[in-house]
Amino acid sequence: MGEETMTQKSKVPSIVPLHYKYQKVEKEDIPSAYNLLSILHKSEEIEKFEVILFHRILKRNYGEPSDAEFEVLGPQETTGEIWGLGKEWKYFVKTPSGGIIQIGTEGLHNFLKIYHVLPEHKKEPDGKLIKEGEQFVADLLKELDHQNRKEPFDPLKQLKEGEGVQLYLLENIYWVNYLRAELMLDDAEEYEGYNEAEAIKYPAELYKDDPEKMAHVNKYIAVSGMYYCAAILYYFMALEGFVNLLYHAFLKDELKGQDVEERLERDLELRVLIMPSLCDGFKNKYFQRGAEIFRRFNELKKYRNEIVHSKIMDAMKNVGFIESGFLYWVQVKKTNKEFLPPSTRSSKEDVLKVKNIVDGIIREVMSKMDDRSKKLVEKFIMRDLTTLFRRDKDGKVRLAELMKKG
User: Is residue 206 domain-shared with residue 89, that is, in the same domain?
Assistant: First the structure.
């Protein structure tokens, strides 16, 4: 057992920490006027790593930065108290020969930059300083690699475990899909008109014996209606995204960690109808029987089933009858576009009906919320492409925003 443990440990060889070789220099000990010259050694390799990993390595070696710039932030009435966040940080370290190196961030701490700090009268480092700068970069990357092999950086794992994660940003899956549906609807008429024109480009007598023309006609018959279908699907996805975001933001604390959302994942209607009893922020625990929301879901299911499930009976086009030796083909669904298959005959009117149903369900859900929660949803979920969440001091997830004071 002991030998196995030693073998496992030997896979990650120990190294000399940075602070043994490069001592930290405080900001006060840096000349008031100096020149900076970039150290570009292994810059492409540095760019592959997240800046936070360098911050952690340097903090482990030297504690807090030699210099840091903060932006003062103020709390919102509906969110937690986030008073300040750092903009940029810098560490100054001394090389063995006495040279100074600055390791810091730029672009709102999105980029790591390393510089020689030179006296005001000096424009270029000498050969020895250049070699020391390159060696520092190599040592920094070696320690980072060593740490990564010991503890691989896994943001999702750290999020689930709550390790050091106080904020996270989600794509607003409601609003993004809603905007996609709107744009698809705006463009659909033009593209559907083109597809229909291509579907009747050749008279039947011309393409029956021409494989290329037949393939062309069949292709455009098959895709006719797809833009309207896509718009409808995006409205479905927007509604599901809205519901998922509400559960993530308002699910009662005692239910978190019990896979409630996963258990209800396949039944969107059930998730909506029992949401007031499972989530905080609602005035009543249930929707009243006979409420408009039930009728809306029944209508929505009809559209969803026709488009999503690809049922054989929904795809039925014609039924053939033989009467006294005569064959009659009768259309199952009458339409003014008889050349199109029934499963693709969605129209602009269908899309607008689905949009109105989705909007109505969302309005009805929000009407059941208390004023404070409704304002939160309007502010953070109904408008932006991303939604910011924070984990408070008790580990609870809350909607959040960062806003400058004043």
Answer: no
Residue 106 sits in the same domain as residue 178: no
Residue among 387, 240, 252 nearest 304 (CA): 240
- For the stretch 362-379, pLDDT in tens is 999 999 999 999 998 998
Structure tokens at 228: 């309207």
Specify the 3-state DSSP secondary structure of 113.
strand
Q: How far apart are CA 381 and CA 174, in angstroms?
A: 8
Which residues does residue 94 pair with via DSSP β-bridges, in sequence order? Answer: 23, 100
Q: Is residue 196 part of a domain?
A: yes
36 and 133 together in one domain: yes
| Cβ density class 213-235: b for 16+ within 10 Å, e for less | eeebbeebbebbbbbbbbbbbbb
Which long-range contacts link 157-165 to residues 24+ away (Cβ below 8 Å)?
162/391, 162/395, 165/391
**What is the rounded distance in angstroms from the CA atom of residue 280 to the CA atom of residue 261?**
15
If residue 45 lies in a helix (H) or strand (E), which one and from where to where? helix 43-47
Same domain, 303 and 373: yes
pLDDT-derived band at 380 (thresholds 50, 70, 90) equals confident
Domain span holding position 56: 12-167
On whether both 256 and 281 belong to a single domain, the answer is yes
Is there a single domain that holds both residue 139 and residue 231? no
Q: What is the pLDDT of residues 2-47, one digit of tens each?
A: 444 434 434 444 566 899 999 999 999 998 899 999 999 999 999 9
Q: Are 177 and 234 in contact (CB under 8 A)?
A: yes
Number of domains making up the chain: 2
Residues 132 and 182 in one domain: no
- Distant-in-sequence contacts of 101-110, Cβ < 8 A, 24+ apart: 101/22, 101/39, 101/132, 101/133, 101/136, 102/36, 103/54, 103/58, 103/140, 104/65, 104/67, 105/51, 105/55, 109/51, 109/55, 110/51
Rounded Cα distance between 295 and 9, Å, is 64
Global pTM reads 0.69
Q: In terms of domains, do 89 and 163 share one?
A: yes
